[in-house]
Write a structure and sequence with these properties.
Elements (H helix, E strand, L loop, with lengths): L20 H4 L8 H13 L4 H11 L11 H12 L1
Bound molecules: iron/sulfur cluster (SF4).
The site of iron/sulfur cluster has 14 residues, from helix 2 and helix 3.
Cofactor: [4Fe-4S] cluster
Subcellular location: Cytoplasm
Main location: cytoplasm
């Protein structure tokens, strides 16, 4: 994965570094989970490394959680469209 010009890993710029991980990886899909994911999505929208985060999620086939402002379902749809 890419590194910053000063050699640091790109994740040091992640907007979620100090956020509650449960927002990005809620337990299950019901109850508080949809609201948690929407809060996470808002954080992702201002993240300077969002594109790299999404690239990583697609590469490792992350099937849980919010990555690059996308849910697992959204990433699956993206992958399906890319294969066509
Ligand atoms: S895009 Fe979202 S999940 Fe990815 S590093 Fe940024 S804030 Fe974190």
């Amino acid at each position: 994965m890419p590194r910053l010009r000063d050699g640091r890993d790109w994740t040091v710029l992640a907007a979620c570094l100090d956020e509650d991980p449960d927002l990005f990886f809620p337990a299950g899909e019901r109850g508080a989970a949809p609201a948690q994911l929407e809060r996470a999505r808002k954080i992702c929208q201002s993240c300077p490394v969002r594109g790299w985060c999404l690239q990583l999620a697609l590469r490792i086939d992350a099937d849980h959680g919010m990555w690059g402002g996308t849910t697992p379902h959204e990433r699956q749809r993206f992958k399906s469209r890319s294969r066509r």
